[in-house]
Amino acid sequence: MHKLFLFIVSLHITIFSFSQDMTALIMKVKTKLDQVNDYEADGKMKTDVAFIKAPVGKVKVFYKKPNKFRLKKDGGISLLPKGGVSVNMNSIFTTSDFVALAAGDAVVGGVKTKVVKLLPSNENSDIVLTTMYIDETNLLVRKAITTTKENGTYEIEMSYGQFAQYGLPDKVVFAFNTKDYKLPKGITLEFDDNEKQLTDAEKLKNKKGRVEITYTNYIINRGINDSVFK
Amino acid sequence: MWTLIQIELFKIFRRPRTYIAFAAITGLIGIIQFGLKLDGDSYVDFMMRDITSSITVEGKILNGYQVCYIVLQVLLVHVPLLIALVAADMISGEANMGTLRIMLTKPISRTRFLLAKFMATIAYTLLLLVWLAVLALFLNMILFGTDDLFLLKSQYVVLLKKDDIFWRYLWAFGFAALAMTTVASLGFLFSLFAENSIGPIVATMSVIIFFTILSTLNIPVFNKIKPFLFTTHMIGWKEFFDIKVNDANEAIVGSIQNPQKIINSAVVLVIHIIGFFTASVLIFKKKDVLS
Q1: ipTM greater than 0.85, yes or no?
Q2: CA quadruple B242, B231, B128, B241: dihedral, nearest 10
Q3: Of A123, A130, B44, B53, which residue is most buried, by most CB within 10 angstroms?
Q4: Chain A CB contacts of B54 below 8 Å
C-alpha cells in the first residue's frame, strides 16, 4: 500500500513536471512571437481543393496584436478554408490560459521537434485541442494540428527562412477537411453525360483540401491601421 | 445579291414583329439587372449555399461578368424562340401575302432569292445577339463593375481571373451566333411548308422545346440520342468558361478545359445549318408557288 502511494505520488509529480516543462517551452515560443506587434506580408496563395479550379493569386496578409488577422487578395475573389486561415500561430498563442502536455518527439520536414498538446482551459474556446510540433533549438512551430468546435480540424505546416528570427514563416500550408460538392445538372444547365465515377481512394483524397501561402516579403512593426481588419 | 439582302432586311425591319424580340430581351435583362441590383446579395447567398459549408468565398462575386453569365444562361435557352418569330416567317409570310409569286417573276434564280432571304435572317439573328451582348455584357460591366468570375458547375467550381474573362465572352457570343443561326435555319426551312406564319413559328418553337427537354433529361435511355440533338450542342458556349488545371491543381490562365468539345459542337451546328439550308433550297426549287 505504501509503495502504491509512493508510485502514484511520483507519477503525479512526473506528469506535473512534464506539463510545467512544456508550458515553459510554449512561453519561450510565445516570447519570440511577441517581438512582432504587427506585420504586413505579400504572398502567393494556391488553393488545392478537388472541386475548385482556381489560379494562383497574389495576397496580402495583415496581423496586429493580440489577434487581428486579415488575408486580402489583391483584388478579385478569394477562396479560403472556412475559419482556417485566420488560425495563425500568433493568434493561437494569444490565449495564455491553457494546459500544455508533452506528447513525445517527432520529425517534421527533417527537423526534430517536441510534440506538445495544448488544451485551452476556457470551455467556451472554439479551439478544442492544438497539437504543436516545436523546434526546440530555434523556438519555431513547425507544425500545428488544431481541432475546433465549429470548423473541424486543420493542419498547418510551416517552413521558415529569412524571417525565422521573428517566428514568421516563409511558407504556410493549411490542410483541412472539405465536404462533398455537387449541384444538379438541371440547375447548372449541363447536358452532357461524362460524369467521372471516382474510386474510394479518390473520394477520400477529395475530402482533403490545401491552401498554400508563400510569403515573399514581411513588413514588421511599422504599425497597421485598424480599418484594415474591418 | 447585296441589293436583294438590303431589300429583305428592309422588309424585316418594317415589321413590328421584328422588334418584339429586341423589346423582350431589353425587358428581361432590365428585370434581371433591377432584381440583382436591389437584392443581389440574397441571390449570391442562395447560389453559394452548397459551397460555403467548407469554403469562405470573399470578394465581389456579383459583378458585371457574373451577371452577364446569369443572363446568358437564362436567355440563350429562350432567345431561339424569339428568333423563330422572324425566321419562320421569311417565306410563309410572303406566301400568305401573295407576294412570293410576284417576287419570283423577277429574273432572279430561286436559289439566289432564297440565299438573300437566308442572309437577311442571319443578319437579324446577329443583330439580336449584338443587342444581347450590349445589354448583358457591356451594360452590366458598367452597372456592376468587373471582377473575377466565380462559376458553379455540377461537380466543381471555377474561378476565372478578371483579365482572363473578356475574350471568353467574345468567343461565347461568337459560338452563340452559330447556335442561333442553326435555329434560324430550322425556322427558315419550316417556313417553306406553310402559307401562313403561325404554323412554322409554332413548329420551330415545339422542336426547340422538345429537343431541349430531351437534352436536359438525365435519363440513361436518352443519353445515347443527346449527341445527335442540336440543342445539346447549343450550350457549347459554356465550355469557354471552363479552365484547365495542371498536375498541382492550379488553374492555367488563358486555357480552355475541352476545346475539342467546342469544335465538335461547332461542327455539328454548322452541319445542321448547311443541312437545313440545302434542304430549303432543294424543296423551294420544286415548290409550287402558284397556289
Answers
A1: no
A2: 0
A3: A130
A4: 81-82, 176-179, 209
